[in-house]
Specification:
The protein is α/β, with parallel strands linked by helices. The chain has helices spanning 16-26, 40-44, 52-56, 61-69, 83-93, 101-111, 125-136, 143-149, 166-172, 196-209, 216-232, 253-264, 271-292, 308-314, 329-341, 358-366, 389-402, 422-440, 448-466; strands at residues 31-33, 152-156, 179-181, 183-184, 237-242, 295-300, 302-303, 322-323, 347-352, 377-379. The mean pLDDT is 97.
Length: 470
């Protein structure tokens, strides 16, 4: 197999201006990863990974979907096959992921940090596996070592309100220079239609908060206590993964109370009652976030767990989700307007999964911006199925044409892998290429110092200022 000569110094940089912008301004900027799914216990323990499969394939549903598509048996994906055999299967199908972002990410992640120049394939699988496994035993390839290697200054993990955050406490007291903060993700508390699982979850939440949840008031009391708990341990962000923001009646707590009481007694609810409950509780959570000065995030538009047979076998987050086609605008507008009426709308980042809604999201944020906060409402980075070249460029263009790109807080990993920080490089190269093409086409002034400073803002400074981190 030929060497990886196409992912070189000027990968994705299609003219001289783009190359200078990247190498002189973007390349060495630090990274703020304000949304990811890295396991905080692995950072706290400073884990050295057993092998390349352990750090690279385990938990990566992007790769799992590709392997299934290319006919790999499940035992080599999520099953009990030996780790080396799982890696061999991935290596064998890797050349056939051409034009998928996986093809680029695979080569970029092998090149940095492992120094692998060859294109991964079946023929070199053993050599690559052995080379990377040897490096992974060294201190600089541990969880903390990799974060330092990629110049990550802040990581925000994704944490359930019931989590005890002991690993965050340990890290805060350690000498590790990367700031590792929790982010509050209360999705489960919004699932009134969850049946026994919902009731079990409320018991857990009540135990964590020291509150016996028997109705709406005690539920909100427990959530407020957990928001306080996260805040005291450095949490400054919340996150919600929703199909859409539901419509609700903010003035009818009685109906919400009645529907919640029915579920606690074992009854089921209608879809309308589920939406009204979820919207009302979400509204109250947003008010809590505002009081704390947090940033709230909404990941909207995923159609999750579509293959119910496979869900029963492998569980959630294993590669059986897709883009949904839900109505988005009315629910967003109603929630933000209700919060705005009482001046309780916190800083907000919206992430869109359906590219058909790019302009909807880009225009929505502009409705609720206000000084003195710069870019208070953010149309967030291209997410999940869209964090690839075409998706990122469309998000950047929609934000540029309808909003203000110079205020953008930039890229995040949204990943469970410590090797995914190449996605920041990927984004930065594309961003510099967009600006470089515009300059050489005469759409922007040929002032590289000025444009370079804007690029550095998008890569790092905007996020640091937005989250008020040193």
């Amino acid at each position: 197999m030929k060497k990886n000569t196409f992912i070189g110094e000027n990968f994705l940089l299609q003219n001289d201006t783009a190359r200078r912008l990247y190498h002189d301004y973007a390349r060495e900027m630090p990274v703020i990863d304000y949304h990811c799914h890295l396991p905080v216990n692995q950072i706290d323990e400073n884990r050295n990974f057993n092998n390349l499969t352990d750090i690279w394939l385990r938990g990566d549903h992007y790769k799992w979907r590709a392997m299934r598509t290319l006919g790999v048996a499940e035992k080599y994906i999520t099953g009990d096959a030996p780790d080396e055999e799982k890696f061999r299967r991935w290596a064998a199908i890797s050349p056939y992921t051409v034009r998928s972002p996986l093809f680029h990410w695979t080569q970029m992640e092998l090149k940095d940090p492992f120094g692998i120049e060859d294109l991964l394939c079946a023929e070199n699988a053993s050599a690559v596996y052995g080379h990377c496994n040897a490096l992974l035993q060294q201190p600089e390839y541990s969880a903390r070592g990799l974060l330092s290697h990629f110049r990550v200054t802040t990581v925000c993990t994704t944490d359930d309100p019931c989590d005890d955050l002991r690993h965050h406490e340990h890290l805060a007291a350690s000498d590790f220079t990367t700031r590792v903060l929790p982010a509050f993700r209360p999705d489960k508390v919004l699932r009134l239609d969850g049946g026994p699982a919902f009731r079990t979850y409320l018991d857990r939440l009540g135990d964590a908060a020291g509150v016996r949840i028997h109705g709406l008031d005690t539920l909100l009391e427990a959530l407020a206590k957990r928001v306080d708990y996260f805040h005291d341990r450095g949490g400054r962000l919340s996150d919600h993964g929703l199909n859409y923001i539901p419509r609700f009646d903010p003035h009818d707590a009685g109906r919400v109370e009645k529907d919640l009481a029915g579920v606690l007694q074992g009854r089921s609810v209608s879809p309308e009652a589920q939406d009204n409950y979820a919207g009302y509780v979400l509204f109250q959570l947003c008010r809590m976030y505002h009081r704390k000065g947090w940033v709230q995030q909404f990941h909207l538009g995923a159609l999750r767990n579509t293959n119910t047979r496979k869900l029963g076998i492998y569980g959630p987050d294993t590669g059986f989700d897709s883009i949904g086609d839900y109505p988005q605008a009315a629910g967003m507008a109603a929630l933000f307007d209700q919060l705005e009426q009482s001046e309780e709308l916190a800083k907000t980042i919206l992430y869109n999964l359906n590219p058909a809604d790019n302009e909807v999201f880009a225009s929505m944020v502009g409705n609720f911006n206000e000084g003195p906060s710069r870019g208070k409402m953010q149309y967030g980075a291209a997410w999940w199925f869209l964090d690839q070249l075409d998706g990122m460029e469309k998000q950047i263009n929609a934000l540029s044409q309808i909003g203000i790109l110079s205020c953008f807080v930039g890229m995040l990993t949204d990943s469970r892998s410590f090797l995914s920080y190449s996605r920041h490089e990927y984004f930065r190269r594309l961003l510099c290429n967009i600006f470089g093409k515009d300059i050489e086409a005469g759409y922007l002034p040929n002032d590289e110092k000025w444009i370079g400073s804007i690029i550095q803002d998008i890569c790092y400074h905007n996020a640091r200022q937005y989250f008020d981190w040193p």
